[in-house]
Design brief:
Helix content is 35%, strand content 18%. It contains 7 helices and 8 strands. The strands form 3 sheets. A 3-stranded antiparallel β-sheet has the order 1-3-2. It has a 3-stranded antiparallel β-sheet with strand order 6-7-8. A two-stranded antiparallel sheet has the order 4-5. The longest helix has 17 residues. The two termini are 13 Å apart.
């Protein structure tokens, strides 16, 4: 059973062992954009000197919402994370769950939240076979239900206030998240 966020980080790092070789070749920009944070991550990253932006007193993001004039603009289309420089994450060891999960993520379709695998990711195209998909589902089935509930609830808040790209993201739904709670 994965009871803490730290334990989940370790399990995700194991699941994605070797992903960096794909990232160096990547031409896609899905790793950029709105990096949402769980409340405990926002607090931890803020203490590390990473700028965090809280929206509507409900959800936090790594602050990447400044336009060219320095004004905050939460409608920027796929803003670049300020900690992604030279095709490298400068806060890699401290990166939040949203970054550690990618190319896995949550997605909402008709009010149903799914665990999904993004298909634009080079790693997904190379390693996203049925065996990998089963490993990912199995990993999330081991997450403590309270922790998973917090993750899904936080994602719902993010989804409700986010402006998504003009075109639909390409992803493969792996499992409805409510299936985790029916075990």
């Amino acid at each position: 059973m994965i009871k803490t966020l730290r334990e989940l980080y370790k399990e995700l790092d194991q699941l994605f062992l070797g992903i960096s070789k794909f990232c160096w070749q990547c031409k896609d920009y899905d790793c950029q954009g709105y990096v949402w944070l769980l409340p405990q991550e926002a607090e931890r990253l803020y203490k590390l000197g990473i700028e965090v932006l809280e929206v509507n007193n409900s959800v936090s993001f790594i602050h990447c919402f400044s336009d060219k004039g320095g004004k905050i603009n939460v409608e920027l289309y796929k803003p670049q994370c300020p900690y992604y420089k030279g095709r490298k994450c400068t806060i890699y060891k401290s990166r939040p769950l949203a970054c550690r999960m990618y190319p896995l993520n949550f997605a909402s379709e008709d009010g149903i939240i799914y665990l999904v695998l993004h298909l634009d990711c080079l790693f997904s195209r190379q390693k996203g076979n049925i065996s990998f998909q089963k490993q990912a589902i199995s990993l999330f089935k081991k997450v403590d239900l309270e922790l998973l509930k917090k993750m899904v609830e936080n994602y719902k808040l993010v989804y409700d206030l986010s402006k998504f790209p003009r075109q639909k993201n390409r992803y493969l739904p792996l499992i409805k998240t409510d299936q985790f709670f029916c075990q």
